[in-house]
Amino acid sequence: MSNEDHDHSQNAYPESTMELADGDLEVHAVGEQGAVPPLPQSAPEDGRYVDVGEIGRGGMGRVHNVRDKRLQRSVAMKVLDPAMAKEPRLATRFVEEAQIQAQLDHPNIPPMHDLGVDPSGAVFFTMKLVRGTSLSDWLQVRTRPPGSPERLGEGVDVFVKACDAVAFAHARGVLHRDLKPGNIMLGEFGEVYVMDWGLALTKGDSVVVSTRRPSDEEHYVAGTPAYISPEAARGEPCDERADIFGLGAILYAIVTGGTVYGNISPLEAVEAARRGDVHLSESAFAYVGASRKLVRILEKALAPAREDRYRSVIALRADVHQFLRGGLTMPRRTFAPGTRIIKEGAPGDQAFIIVEGTCEAYKTVQGARRTLRRMGPGDVFGETAVLSDSPRTATVEAIDQVTALVIDRVALEDGLGFDTWLGTLVKALAQRFRELDARVTSGT
User: Fold this and answer.
1) Is 26 in contact with 20 (CB distance < 8 Å)?
2) What is the CA radius of gyration of the chain?
3) Residue 4 in 3-state DSSP?
4) Is 138 left (phi over 0), alpha (psi -120 to 50) or beta?
5) What is the span of the domain harbouring residue 290?
6) 171 and 105, same domain (yes or no)
7) 302-314 burial, b if ≥16 CB within 10 A, otherwise e?
8) Does residue 2 lie in a domain region?
């Protein structure tokens, strides 16, 4: 659970106080507090829930793994902090979180089970106990570094499922407003859940809750600095495009391992967000081998001006899904110094883009080695043989340790569309280059 101690309004903030904890931004309104919501009066009988142990803490309370003796299952129980229960505004928010999430019946949103007051008077709700890990922790695993096929393939699949959940919530008139890797849980059997609806804001009458609507007299901003949209950081009214920005920031973290405001402190990130200073690193894109199509998706989702972003999560999801169908990314390989990466005369089934290191291309002419060129980061080699479906015309050897992105024939065919006019043109050019190379080599 993330920090949840935020107010449910979407307007500017002339008076506010700010505190930072664990990287989350909390800005609490200075203004009218709401009435205590009508809490459920039917308390569970003594002994129904057996506490197994604490599993997390949020901004408003603690989360425990408890055993529901009546239904013989384990559930997650979140209990409102007693001190916060005395604050009508906070008690309202706690109950509203449960009521909103309970009405979002979707496979990628954890179902709510119960809301009530325990025998000691503590307000609680129970929900599905998700066993697994957060996307934030998943992204830190060293065996799936940025650019690896596992990270991008599996990570973007998780992202699409998160989009499904958020799109459903938007269709029900609910904005999440705190989307980040820490609020996406990955279950043990492939489940994906969008968690922590404590900042959720309802629009219209699609979702009915027992508490009041946000009013023009309440002002605040809330979110997580690394993922907050510019308009939310400025305290402006938010709509679905604020969640689209959050989803874009999650996708950027999956692709590059970085954050959209750069490697700066939370307070600096908030200021950058207010200025709309979104920092998408071209070098990070190049390092992980992100395609231009994926970069364009991120640029649109993370546009500083919300009118330039996707108009709906469905549209964002559609572009990402189409990208997935076309092939997600290029795997990378590392070669030790002296390794012959490709050999003259060998079949040409892969091309390479150098990420780090230096290579030398050479041919053997009348038994002697003839250097053709030296190549470094950004240079491409091996593509002619792949495009022309012919043997290699030169050898490429690693001078020092080389890391390169690998493009196989299938990826090239999918990317270029060999059955299109563009693919036909590129193949013809490759064949002409090969013929010219052969004439130069033979001296004819």
Assistant:
1) yes
2) 27
3) coil
4) alpha
5) 131-139+147-203+219-329
6) no
7) bbbebeebbeebe
8) no
Cβ pair 181, 135 in contact under 8 A:
yes
Q: What percent of the residues of the chain are helix, what percent strand, and what percent coil, each to the nearest 5?
A: 35, 25, 40
Catalytic residue among 5, 81, 114, 178: 178
Q: Name 146's Cβ contacts closer than 8 Å, sequence gap at least 6.
A: 255, 256, 257, 284, 287, 288
The amino acid that residue 417 corresponds to is G
What CATH number has the domain bearing residue 272?
Answer: 1.10.510.10
Residues 370 and 299 in one domain: no
Question: Is 51 annotated in the active site?
Answer: no
Give residue-wise pLDDT tens across range 278-322. 989 888 887 777 777 888 999 999 999 999 999 999 999 999 988
| Burial (Cβ within 10 Å: 0-12, 13-18, ≥19) of residue 381 | buried
Cα–Cα distance for residue pair 78/57, rounded to 1 Å? 9
Residues 175 and 281 reside in one and the same domain: yes
**Which parts of the chain sit beneath pLDDT 70?**
1-46, 204-222, 325-330, 410-444
**Cβ neighbours of residue 37 closer than 8 Å, sequence gap 6 or more:** 91, 92, 95, 96, 210, 211
Number of domains observed in the structure of the chain: 3
Which of 114, 414, 356, 146 minimizes the C-alpha distance to 258? 146
Q: Are residues 181 and 266 in the same domain?
A: yes
Residue 298 structure tokens: 């991120």
Question: 390-405 pLDDT, tens per residue?
Answer: 888 889 999 999 998 8
